[in-house]
Amino acid sequence: MSAQIVTQALQSLEFTRDFEPKKLEKLAAISTYVTFSEGAMIFREGDSSELVYLIIEGEVSLLTQVPGHGQVTILVLEPGHLLGWSSLFPPQRKTASARTNVPTRAIAINALKLLDLCQGDTDFGYSIMWKVADIISGRLRAAREQLLDMFEPAKK
Hints:
CATH class: Mainly Beta
CATH superfamily: Jelly Rolls
Oligomer: single chain
Low-confidence stretches: none
Strand order of the largest sheet: 1-8-3-6
Radius of gyration: 16 Å
């Protein structure tokens, strides 16, 4: 898929839609269009990876191993969501597994090249990292709510 088509897809996603065209072009240059079939494992918890994804279409479950419970879905991501943010931070190990629930299309971004872009353009870097921090914060809140639900005493 051409960089122009990836740029157009980036323009439509919540994560990137407010970026200037030149910044979208730079992002598209380090990105590729990818597709996954239903039930595909995109990555596993603990994997080392240099890719982050923006979901264009489909649905992806984030899963984690819980002792005594096996693999548990902790969150479901939909179009526009960022997947694999941990690749932006050393040691680039995934904090959960990701499996598609339906056929899924996404943009895969090379995280190391993205970090280089962020360092070269601090305004762009600030925008990216602010968005990533907001996503991490939201996911921590969601995980906390799940924990509270799990350990809430049974209501009579």
